[in-house]
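Task: sequence design from structure.
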C-alpha cells in the first residue's frame, strides 16, 4: 500500500467523525480522489480564527507542504492538541492514533521525495549523518522560536517508570500517567524516537534554535533534522530503505556503589560478581511497543508491580556492608561527590538490616537509627529500581552515512505531569520581578535541555562523543526565512512530554539525571549518580522544598521545620494527607495536639520517613498533584512569596538573610477556600476589601523548641511561638495575628 493509499484510509475513517467538514472550512477536501494534488494545492481561505488554528504557521498555505510539517494545514489539524472542535462547534468524535500520525508524517516527507544528492546540496558542505531524535508537535508557546505551532526535536528522550500499562489519549495527542480506578497506580510514560538525516550546524536562533539559547551557543555544534527516514521506496528517490531502531539501557547503580566504596573498605562484593545482575543489568527496563495503534519507535518502560523491589543475588538477599563511621544525610548513607561529580549514587538506603540467617530487620523501628547507621558494621539490604540510561541507535544499511545515537533516559515518575520545567524556568526568568527572584528557589529551576554536557561516556557501545555537549538541547528543523508570530495565547498542553525541556537539570540531590567526570576533567550526564533506589533521592528533593520544582513536590511542610529549606510551593492539606487519605508520598502531614496545656505540632521525623517503603507498598499517588498545572503552580509560588512579605520579610535583602528570615516560619495549613467562606467574609468586612478570584488560606507559625516524642521516637514535636492566618486573593493579602483584627497587607510586589 502506498503512503497516499494509507492516508486515504485514515481520511476515510476521520471523515465519519467531523474531520471532513472541519477541513472544508479551510478549503481542503480530505475525501478527494486525487488526494496528493488536493493536499498540495494552495489554500486561499485558511481560517486561523477557528478554534485550534490560531497558531498555525502564517507561512503555511497548503494541506501538506513537502518536508515541512509545521507549514502543513492537514498535519496541524491532526497533530495539534489544540484542534478538538468540529465545524459545528461541537467536539470531534474521534482523533488520530499515534500510528496514523506516523503515517501522515511519513507522507509529508515522502509526498515529493528528494534525491540524496538534493539533500547533500541543501547541506551546503555541512556534515551530514543519520541521527536519532525524539519529537513532538507543540503549540506555539512551547516551541523553540515561539512563533507558531511546530515540531520540536531533541537527541535525548525521557521515559518514566510506572506500575501500570501506558495510556495514549488521542484527543490530547499524548500519554497520561493516571489510573482512574486506582489512585496509587502510576502508568509508565514512553518516549517516541525516529531517525532523520541531519546536518551539523552551529547554533542559530533565527533558523533552528536551540530552545532557550545560551550566550555561547552560536559557537556550538547542533545536529538539526532535515529529512525523516522510513521504510520503503517513497522516502528518498531511487532508494528502497530499511530503517530500524535498536535500544539498550543499563542500570549500574549497585555496581557503582561497590566499585566506589570498595576503594576504601570491604563492601562484601567485588569482581566478578559486581559485573553481574543485579549489580549491573539491562533486562526489564524498557522495550519497543508492539501496540498497533502506537506505530513504531515508541519506547515503553517495562511495567513492574512496584517501583522498587528488594535485590536478590544467587537466590539470597543482596546486601552491602555498611562502613563504620559512615557519612550520612538524614538516615541515608551518603557517598561523597568529587567536586560535584557523582561516580556512584549519592544517597543509598541502608535501613533494612540483613542478619546472618537472612532475616530482615527494619531499623526504622528502632529509636537510635542514625547512631546505628553511623556505627555501621552491618549488612544493609540493597534495593533496585528500573530507572536507567542508555541509547537508541538507527540501522539503515541502504545509506552510507555515519549514525549518531540518541541518549535515552528511563527515569522516575513526574508528580506534576501537567507542569513542565521549561514553563517554570521561562516564568522565573522573564516574568517575575527581579526583587522577587532572590527569595524563591535557592537553585534556579533549570531544565535538562539547558545543560551543555555530553551523554554518559561510560556507555562505550553508544559511541557518545565527549565534546558533543548539545545532545540534550531542543531544536526545530531549519527555516530559511524567519517566521511571523501568530499568537502565544494558547492553553498549555496537558500531556506527558518526553523531551528534555520537561525534565529536571543537573544538581544534587537529583531527580531525572546526575553527572560524573572523566579523569581528564570532562563532565558527562549519568543516571548512576541518582539515589539507590531513586526514592532515596526523592525524599531529599521533596523535603528540601522542591529542588526540582516541576517534578518534585515541595514536602517541606510535611516534616519538621528546617531553617535552610522553607516552603516554596506549598502542597494543600489534602495533598500531604493532613486531611483525607491521599498523601502524594504516603506520609501524612503534621497535626496539632495538646500538651502541658498548650498547642503543639507533631510531625513525622524526616529521619524515619521511608520513601523506599512507600514505593514498595505502592503508597505514591498522582491523583491530586497531577491536577496542578503550571498556572496553579505559579499562583502558589507567588502566594507563598506574598505571605512571607506580609510577615515582614524583605526580599530586598541578601539571599542568605531572606532564607534565614523565611526559615523562622513554617506552613501549618494551606488550602483553597470559596469566596463564600465565613472567615474570609469576616476578613473582607473588617478590611473593607473587595475581592475576586481564587482564594488561598494559610496558617503560618513561628516555630519554637523541637523535641522528640518520648513515647513515639519517630515523631517530633514543635512548639508554636506565634500563629498567623493569611488569605491571598490575586494581589490582595489579608492577615490576622493572634488576638488582633484582620488587616490589609501591602505585601504584593509591583515592578
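Answer:
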Amino acid at each position: 500500500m502506498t503512503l497516499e493509499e494509507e492516508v486515504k484510509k485514515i481520511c476515510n475513517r476521520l471523515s465519519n467523525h467531523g474531520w471532513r467538514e472541519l477541513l472544508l472550512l479551510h478549503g481542503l477536501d480530505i475525501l478527494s480522489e486525487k488526494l496528493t494534488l488536493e493536499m498540495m494545492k494552495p489554500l486561499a481561505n485558511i481560517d486561523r480564527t477557528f478554534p485550534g488554528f490560531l497558531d498555525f504557521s502564517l507561512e503555511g498555505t497548503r494541506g501538506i507542504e513537502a518536508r515541512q510539517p509545521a507549514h502543513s494545514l492537514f498535519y496541524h489539524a491532526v497533530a495539534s492538541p489544540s484542534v478538538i472542535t468540529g465545524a459545528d462547534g461541537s467536539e470531534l468524535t474521534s482523533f488520530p492514533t499515534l500510528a496514523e500520525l506516523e503515517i501522515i508524517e511519513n507522507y509529508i516527507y515522502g509526498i515529493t521525495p528528494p534525491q540524496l544528492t538534493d539533500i547533500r546540496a541543501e547541506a551546503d558542505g555541512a556534515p551530514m549523518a543519520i541521527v536519532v531524535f525524539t519529537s513532538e508537535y507543540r503549540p506555539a508557546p512551547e516551541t523553540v522560536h515561539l512563533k507558531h505551532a511546530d515540531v520540536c526535536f531533541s537527541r535525548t528522550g525521557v521515559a518514566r517508570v510506572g506500575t501500570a500499562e501506558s495510556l495514549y489519549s488521542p484527543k490530547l495527542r499524548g500519554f497520561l500517567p493516571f489510573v482512574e480506578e486506582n489512585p496509587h497506580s502510576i502508568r509508565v510514560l514512553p518516549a517516541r524516537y525516529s531517525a532523520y538525516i541531519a546536518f551539523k550546524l552551529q547554533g542559530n536562533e533565527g533558523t533552528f534554535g536551540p530552545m532557550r539559547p545560551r550566550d555561547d551557543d552560536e559557537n556550538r555544534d547542533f545536529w538539526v533534522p532535515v529529512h525523516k527516514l522510513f521504510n520503503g521506496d517513497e522516502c528518498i528517490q531511487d532508494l528502497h530503505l530499511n530503517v530500524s531502531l535498536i535500544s539498550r539501557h543499563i542500570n549500574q547503580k549497585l555496581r557503582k556503589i561497590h566499585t566506589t566504596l570498595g576503594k576504601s573498605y570491604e563492601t562484601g562484593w567485588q569482581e566478578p560478581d559486581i559485573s553481574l545482575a543485579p549489580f549491573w543489568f539491562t533486562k526489564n527496563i524498557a522495550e519497543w511497543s508492539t501496540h498497533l495503534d502506537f506505530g513504531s519507535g515508541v519506547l515503553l518502560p517495562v511495567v513492574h508491580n512496584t517501583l522498587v523491589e528488594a535485590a536478590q543475588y544467587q537466590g539470597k538477599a543482596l546486601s552491602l556492608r555498611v562502613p563504620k563511621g559512615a557519612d550520612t544525610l538524614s538516615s541515608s548513607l551518603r557517598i561523597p561527590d568529587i567536586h560535584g561529580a557523582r561516580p556512584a549514587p549519592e544517597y543509598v538506603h541502608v535501613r533494612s538490616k540483613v542478619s546472618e540467617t537472612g532475616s530482615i530487620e527494619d531499623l526504622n523501628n528502632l529509636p537510635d537509627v542514625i547512631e546505628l547507621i553511623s556505627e555501621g558494621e552491618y549488612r544493609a539490604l540493597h534495593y533496585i529500581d528500573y530507572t536507567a540510561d542508555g541509547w537508541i541507535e538507527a540501522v539503515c544499511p541502504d545509506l552510507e552515512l555515519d549514525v549518531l545515537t540518541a541518549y535515552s533516559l528511563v527515569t522516575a515518575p513526574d508528580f506534576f505531569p501537567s507542569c513542565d520545567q521549561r514553563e517554570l524556568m521561562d516564568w522565573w526568568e522573564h516574568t517575575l520581578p527581579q526583587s522577587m527572584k532572590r527569595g524563591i528557589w535557592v537553585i534556579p529551576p533549570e531544565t535538562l535541555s539547558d545543560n551543555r554536557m555530553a551523554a554518559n561516556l561510560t556507555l562505550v557501545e553508544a559511541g557518545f562523543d565527549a565534546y558533543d555537549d548539545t545532545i540534550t538541547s531542543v531544536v526545530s528543523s531549519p527555516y530559511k526565512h524567519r517566521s511571523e508570530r501568530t499568537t502565544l495565547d494558547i492553553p498549555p498542553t496537558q500531556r506527558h512530554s518526553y523531551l528534555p525541556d520537561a525534565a529536571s537539570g543537573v544538581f544534587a540531590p537529583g531527580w531525572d539525571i546526575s553527572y560524573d567526570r572523566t579523569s581528564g576533567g570532562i563532565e558527562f550526564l549519568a543516571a548512576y549518580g541518582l539515589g539507590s533506589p531513586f526514592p532515596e533521592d526523592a525524599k531529599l528533593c521533596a523535603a528540601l522544598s522542591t529542588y526540582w520544582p516541576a517534578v518534585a513536590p515541595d514536602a517541606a511542610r510535611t516534616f519538621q521545620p528546617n531553617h535552610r529549606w522553607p516552603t516554596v510551593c506549598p502542597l494543600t492539606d489534602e495533598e500531604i494527607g493532613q486531611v483525607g487519605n491521599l498523601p502524594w508520598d504516603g506520609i501524612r502531614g503534621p497535626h496539632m495536639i495538646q500538651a502541658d496545656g498548650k498547642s503543639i505540632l507533631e510531625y513525622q521525623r524526616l529521619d524515619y520517613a521511608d520513601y523506599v517503603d512507600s514505593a514498595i507498598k505502592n503508597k505514591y499517588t498522582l491523583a491530586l498533584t497531577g491536577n496542578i498545572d503550571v498556572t496553579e503552580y505559579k499562583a502558589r509560588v507567588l502566594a507563598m512569596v506574598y505571605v512571607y512579605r506580609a510577615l515582614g520579610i524583605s526580599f530586598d535583602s541578601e539571599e542568605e538573610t531572606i532564607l534565614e528570615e523565611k526559615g523562622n516560619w513554617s506552613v501549618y495549613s494551606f488550602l483553597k477556600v470559596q469566596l463564600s467562606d465565613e472567615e474570609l467574609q469576616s476578613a473582607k468586612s473588617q478590611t473593607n476589601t473587595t475581592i475576586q478570584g481564587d482564594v488561598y488560606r494559610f496558617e503560618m507559625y513561628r516555630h519554637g523548641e523541637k523535641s522528640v516524642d518520648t513515647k513515639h521516637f519517630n515523631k517530633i514535636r514543635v512548639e508554636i511561638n506565634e500563629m498567623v492566618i493569611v488569605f491571598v486573593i490575586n494581589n490582595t493579602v489579608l492577615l490576622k495575628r493572634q488576638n488582633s483584627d484582620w488587616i490589609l497587607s501591602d505585601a504584593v510586589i509591583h515592578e
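DSSP finds 15 helices and 34 strands in the chain.
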